[in-house]
Amino acid sequence: HPEVFPPDNLLDLGAANLGPVTGMFPTRNALVVFKAQGIYLIKGDPVNGFSAQTLTRDVGCNAPNSICEVPGAGLVFLASDGVYALQGSLENEGMATSEIRLSTPISELMKRLNRSALLNAFGVVYHRAKEVWFAVPTIGSDVNNLVLVYHYDVAAWSYRENLPIGCMLETHDHRGYLVFGSHDATNHPGLHVYSEGWADKDGTAITPLYETAHLDLGAGLVRTARPRHAWTYSVGHGNT
User: Where in 97-217 does DSSP place strands (E)?
Assistant: First the structure.
């Protein structure tokens, strides 16, 4: 029966007091499993079977949508006390896998995080700018209102405020745009494309904006919808 799992298909991951499974991420030839307090590696194959290996019980992931693979840094994720990276081969290649805290230089900023709302945090790699964005909620807010930016080519941090990022992704075409969906349905609804720009042009104020028609997915049968694709229609006007 499809709802019955053979004993060999069940894997126990750590003790119950380490919290529930909070995220999973496939990388190389393994599956990394995160708990609230612990990280595990599942390896194997269908012939010889699979096994779970404990990587650490000292740190876990509290924001499953923050997990992303960063060039030169490893598997990066947001924990309750900072941003961490798993470095190493994740395989038996003589290189030990260990976790390092990337957010040590911005420890004061990390104190502003609302840890009870980290489930809403989001992370994405923006390859065009060689940046990793972490949209996080701060104390007093249950929505993301602060963006922590890790510049992975120079291992430095910056931050941006008041971007209403509810979710975000990088487009998988040659342009590699960073697109985010707004959690502010009143002032900035829809989808937005991030771009570097200026507040004025020859003394004339400009307000670049990219948004969709508002789609109310909070009612009726579509309240659980999770869009993956959208067609866009663009109109350009003015010179340059």
Answer: 98-101, 122-126, 131-136, 146-151, 156-161, 165-170, 178-182, 191-193, 200-201, 204-205
> Rounded CA gap, 99 and 105, in Å?
16
User: Side by side, which strands form the sheet with 68-70?
Assistant: 68-70, 74-79, 82-87, 98-101
Q: What is the pTM of this model?
A: 0.77
Contacts of 136 (CB under 8 A, 6+ apart): 63, 78, 113, 114, 118, 121, 144, 146, 147, 148
Tens of pLDDT, residues 173-207: 888 999 999 999 888 888 888 887 666 667 777 66
Distance, CA of 78 to CA of 22 (rounded, Å):
11
CA-based nearest residue to 162, from 186, 189, 138: 138
Tokens of 55: 């990587």
Count CB neighbours of 176 within 10 A: 13
